[in-house]
Amino acid sequence: LCQPLQALSAPPLPQVAMNGLKEKVLTLDTMNPCVRRVEYAVRGPIVLRALELEQELRQGVKKPFTEVIRANIGDAQAMGQKPITFLRQVLALCVHPDLLNSPDFPEDAKRKAERILQACGGHSLGAYSVSSGIQLIREDVASYIERRDGGIPADPNNIYLSTGASDAILTVLKLLVAGEGPTRTGVLIPIPQYPLYSAALAELNAVQVDYYLDEERAWALDVAELRRALCQARDHCCPRALCIINPGNPTGQVQARECIEAVIRFAFEERLFLMADEVYQDNVYAEGSQFHSFKKVLTEMGPPYATQQELASFHSVSKGYMGECGFRGGYVEVVNLDAAVQQQMQKLLSVRLCPPVPGQVLLSMVVSPPAPSDPSFAQFQAERQAVLAELAAKAKLTEQVFNEAPGIRCNPVQGAMYSFPRVQLPPRAVQRAQELGLAPDMFFCMRLLEETGICVVPGSGFGQREGTYHFRMTILPPMEKLRPLLEKLSQFHAKFTREYS
Amino acid sequence: LCQPLQALSAPPLPQVAMNGLKEKVLTLDTMNPCVRRVEYAVRGPIVLRALELEQELRQGVKKPFTEVIRANIGDAQAMGQKPITFLRQVLALCVHPDLLNSPDFPEDAKRKAERILQACGGHSLGAYSVSSGIQLIREDVASYIERRDGGIPADPNNIYLSTGASDAILTVLKLLVAGEGPTRTGVLIPIPQYPLYSAALAELNAVQVDYYLDEERAWALDVAELRRALCQARDHCCPRALCIINPGNPTGQVQARECIEAVIRFAFEERLFLMADEVYQDNVYAEGSQFHSFKKVLTEMGPPYATQQELASFHSVSKGYMGECGFRGGYVEVVNLDAAVQQQMQKLLSVRLCPPVPGQVLLSMVVSPPAPSDPSFAQFQAERQAVLAELAAKAKLTEQVFNEAPGIRCNPVQGAMYSFPRVQLPPRAVQRAQELGLAPDMFFCMRLLEETGICVVPGSGFGQREGTYHFRMTILPPMEKLRPLLEKLSQFHAKFTREYS
Fold it and tell me: Where does the protein end up (chains A, B) (predicted)?
């Protein structure tokens, strides 16, 4: 029998523990250390506790509340939003083509379904698609982007469908990581950020480079701050990419066109690959705010930006007005990507075979909805507008109610689906949290959950300036629940403040 | 403006190329070197060429064939297999619950759909599920495993639903990789293998440790060979996991119970984490062959194996009798996993939010199909049996026709969906291939594709003993096409052999 090599750099592994059991192969000490470093607050300890509380309620345990309200995650349909009828009609027809003979489905839904089935292997959603996604749907996405961007061309060959936007973001980051020690890839991300970014960078062993959004100026992005972050990072890593989330998650700001131009100039000068997380492009509510895609701005800036600046832009079926999170559909468009790298990306995607086909089908509807002449147009438009109008009203209400509460300050929710209010926490509460080994805002959010059933995510899970405290709360609860919820939360904060004063 | 750090260990990056263009940030030289090393033959150059040929045919280019037959990938529905009606009925009802009022759906399908919708957030497939998958469906999977394994208990908390089996395999491998240089994680994989394994290990920068299946004994797995591979590997890495594919892909063997016992004893003695790829558990055709799950054998071996040996077993909705590849459903069951590691796995999965819900729904049907008393039972059984019986006949026919051809030798296709015949290639063909910079079997398969339209994957994409040549061909083409296909392929081989003799 051969003996394991005792490498100099690793401690010898104990083969048999004290109790006579062999030690496990896979333990906290022997597992992938990068995975250990991963954190993901949106589904972290507070959400696990919320699940437990729901179970306790079902078992009849008495609580000071009757239901847990999950305002922790951008999951519209879990909060009661109804699916858009047309999307589900087409998908049902594709899933079960016998329905194509049913009189209960509109003609345009049937036409769409037949067109998609024609493009599927064996005319079935059950076949793998090509790894980049069904060609027809990539063409639909390209047409959508062209319409969105005022006619600027989009090439279907630069579009890759994905398992939600997260999957595409991970793929692009995976291409970018390289080097060791001081040449390790650094990636600039906003603080506050959506923690997919920090989690992915930890998993990939890349360096997270924080740039701070300016809370005093409604979470504006400032190029001077980008430059500060970049310069400091160059001491210890090789910054190669810059992530932007617009509209902002968790911060809800919508970037002005001039700001986007400045960011593009900065990225070009500093040789940074741009990653534009634009999954909330349909979620813009504030008057005067407008979504500008990085692709459009970059193209309109002309050469050298239009011809050379590398960009990946991400979109998803999980947000917008449709909120079809469970289907895991999305895409990335790459711009000015090196041709050989693009082949490598194609190869990497092929290992995963293909994105889920139902998510591809829903994406196809989102990017090519009913036209005015189609029988489904009126209902589709009405449903879409109703969702977006209600979201806009809820965005406004959230800002308003929070800003009436002493000790809470909330920037305008210009877009996306979240408020990220700042809360003052009394020094004695901060001290108590430290005694418990908790971040002060985690302590606040846990107490909030236990006493009110409201589940929000502490700001520390997204990043915030030292000494400031926030939480992220979605604007998704139904209107009739949202106002009482906001008031209950404000009252809890007041009580919490008194308790620790 | 700050200057980039010129790290000692990295060559300075050229900022501006000769033509005045800035060099791209992301190039072959600067991208992730692990991704560059990834190879995935099942969708490699031969498949890209097949796609091109299909396009040329559509454009009216004259070819010596009228259609490309994609026998490269285990994609039953792409080859014309019809979906199982009950699965699609339930899914259509879940996608578009208005159909619950339709008289065209059987009552048991409606009951199933209602039960699933009750378990979904907001009673909709459009909500995220918990990251490990819908609890109800995990319970269904646990019951299925218990029935399959003769009553041995399965815990739903040890079951994680996934985006196809590939996703779950990558997750478990990701937990296992650690170390550098001689302590780098080594993973034993069979040769020939399914190239997901080599691709994943390259991407994760782990060490691939090859053990050879014995072609002379119908691709049997021999513990002496496992030991040889392990001992040699310990010189340069730290082997920590052993992957088994049973029934075999691409090799089609079904492991005997004694063999599985020997593998488990070996893994236990040598402290290897077992990964059992059992996605073809429903695809067993040969008389006398039977599927034994690693979980069942391990449990029946009693302590210390039953209580200590770590195991992950994978299953999928893409294979079996249903072949629902496009939905990307699957699961992993973990056994004897360290509790703290399991929490880490849970956390890692949460970053990806959740597996696609439609795939979860299909999995639920696969693990809890109609019972004999249900209205859909008869049709479901008939459809299921028809698929499996035809696959069995095609497995037999494939073996038979190939073995009639001089220079081709094919082991019995006891299970799974592939034959992996060995072909003799004349020395002059080998030489010609080398001149062209191609693996000899790639040269053969490319010529086959160009002259006959038959797309199969060269053995070099799966691994094979030096100096032997194979290809993988699915048994999925419809019966009426399969015999002519096999004969055409055999004739082409004869012609190719004459040409280079």
Answer: Cytoplasm
A375 in any annotated domain: no
Domain shared by A102 and A144, yes or no: no
One domain for residues B116 and B137: no
What are the chain B neighbours of A71 within 8 Å (beta carbons)? none
Both tokens assigned to A484:
């009482």
Question: Is the ipTM beyond the 0.90 threshold?
Answer: yes
Q: How far apart are CA B199 and CA B43, in angstroms?
A: 12
Residue A326 and residue B357: Cβ atoms within 8 Å?
yes
- Separation in Å, CA of A18 to nearest CA in chain B: 15
A393 in any annotated domain: yes
Does one domain contain both B289 and B331?
A: yes
Range of the domain at A323: 135-367
Cβ distance B273 to A26 less than 8 Å, yes or no, reads yes
Determine, yes or no, domain membership for A376.
Answer: no
State how far the Cα of A277 lies from the Cα of B499, in Å rounded to an integer.
56
Look at residues A69, A103, A127 and tell me which one is the last residue of a structural domain.
Answer: A127
Q: Which of A4, A175, A325 sits opposite B127 (nearest CB)?
A: A325
Helix (H) / strand (E) element for A484: namely: helix A479-499
Contacting residues of B for A351, CB less than 8 Å apart: 38, 40, 166, 196, 199-200, 203
- CATH code of the domain in which B487 resides: 3.90.1150.10
Tell me the β-bridge partners of A161.
Answer: A331
Q: How many structural domains compose chain A?
A: 3
**Phi, psi (deg, nearest 5) at residue B476:** -85, -20
- Three-state DSSP state, B220: strand
Q: Are residues B221 and B240 in the same domain?
A: yes
Do the beta carbons of residue B409 and residue B421 sit within 8 Å? Answer: yes
Clarify whether residues B189 and B319 are in a common domain: yes
Q: Looking at the DSSP assignment, which residues form a beta bridge with residue A186?
A: A207, A239
Q: Under a CB-based contact definition with an 8 Å cutoff, are residues B173 and B194 in contact?
A: no
From the list A7, A32, A126, which residue is nearest B325 (CB)?
A126
If asked whether residues B409 and B444 sit together in one domain, one would say: yes
Among the three residues B91, B107, B127, which one is the final residue of a domain in this structure? B127
Give the other-Cβ count within 10 Å of A157's Cβ.
14
pLDDT tens for chain B, 501 residues: list them.
344 433 334 444 445 555 667 789 999 999 999 999 998 877 778 988 998 999 999 999 999 999 999 999 899 999 999 999 999 999 999 999 999 999 999 999 999 999 999 999 999 999 999 999 999 999 999 999 999 999 999 999 999 999 999 999 999 999 999 999 999 999 999 999 999 999 999 999 999 999 999 999 999 999 999 999 999 999 999 999 999 999 999 999 999 999 999 999 999 999 999 999 999 999 999 999 999 999 999 999 999 999 999 999 999 999 999 999 999 999 999 999 999 999 999 999 998 899 999 999 999 999 999 999 999 999 999 999 999 999 999 999 999 999 999 999 999 999 999 999 999 999 999 999 999 999 999 999 999 999 999 999 999 999 999 999 999 999 999 999 999 999 999 999 999 999 998
Same domain, A253 and A267: yes
In terms of Cβ atoms closer than 10 Å to its own Cβ (0-12, 13-18, 19+), residue A388 is middle
- Whether B22 is covered by a domain: the verdict is no
Whether residues A445 and A495 fall in one domain: yes
For A327, the closest chain B residue by CA position comes to B356
A314: three-class secondary structure by DSSP: strand
DSSP structure class, residue B13:
P
Q: Which of B167, B100, B156, B170 is closest to B367 using CA atoms?
A: B156
Distance CA B331, CA B345 (A): 14
> Beta strand pairing status for B238-245 and B273-277?
parallel
Burial of B10 (C-beta count, 10 Å sphere; 0-12/13-18/19+) = middle
CA–CA separation, B433 and B50 (whole Å): 19
